[in-house]
Amino acid sequence: MTIVQRVLQAATLASLGLAAAATGQSEAPGTTEPADAPAIAAVNPTPHSQDAERRGRTHYLRHCQICHGFDGRALENIDFEAADLTDPDRWLFGTTDGDLFRNTKFGAGLDMPPFEAELDDEEIWDLVHYLRSIGPRELRPSPAEGTVQTKENRR
C-alpha cells in the first residue's frame, strides 16, 4: 500500500468518525461500553485453528492495520488513538471474544468504525482468533483445548 493510499484511508476513517459525531453516535455517558451495541456470546463459536488465525490475519491486514499497525501495536495518529491490540490492559471496550466481535462488527466509541458491511460474522470470528494470537502469551488459546484466557478470567 502506498503512502498516498494510507493517507487517503486514514482521512476516510477520520471523516467517518466526524460523521458519527455529527449524527450523535457516541459512547454511553459515564461508561466505556459502546452505546446501543447488542450483547454477543463471550465464546467464539468458530473452533480455534491455525487456518482460522491465517484467515483472520488476512482480514486484519486488509481492514485493521491502517489504524492498529502491521503488528497490532497501533500507529501514532494525531486524529485518533487506536488501541494497542497486543496489550489487552489498554483496551477500553472489553477483552472477551464477544467484546472483540461486537467492537469489530458495530464499532466502539468515536474512533473505531463498524465493519459489519465489510466482514461477515465468520470472518469477524476468524479475526478474533488472529487478535488472540498476537496478544500476550498467557492470553493466547491453549493448543489442546482452544480456550482463551481473558483479563477477566485470568485472575
Task: Describe what this molecule looks like in 3D.
The protein is mostly helical and 155 residues long. The chain has a single domain (3-25, 34-139), classed as Cytochrome Bc1 Complex, Chain D, domain 2, CATH 1.10.760.10. Helices cover 40% and strands 0% of the residues. Helix 4 (97-106) packs across helix 5. The longest helix is centred in the N-terminal third of the chain and has 20 residues, at 3-22.
Topology:
Blueprint: H1 3-22, H2 50-63, H3 65-68, H4 97-106, H5 121-134
What is the chain-wise order of helices and strands? HHHHH
CATH class, please? Mainly Alpha
Large-scale geometry: globular
CATH architecture level-2 label: Orthogonal Bundle
The name of the CATH superfamily reads Cytochrome c-like domain
Beta-strand portion reads under 5%
Oligomer: single chain
**Domain unit count:** 1
- Main sheet makeup: none
Spans of 5+ residues with little confidence (pLDDT < 50)? Answer: 18-32
Radius of gyration, taken over Cα atoms and rounded to an integer in Å:
15 Å
Tell me the number of strands. Answer: 0
User: Count of helical segments?
Assistant: 5
Approximately how much helix is present in the residues?
40-55%
Compute the average pLDDT.
77
Structural class: mainly alpha
For this structure, the CATH topology is: Cytochrome Bc1 Complex, Chain D, domain 2
Termini distance? 41 Å
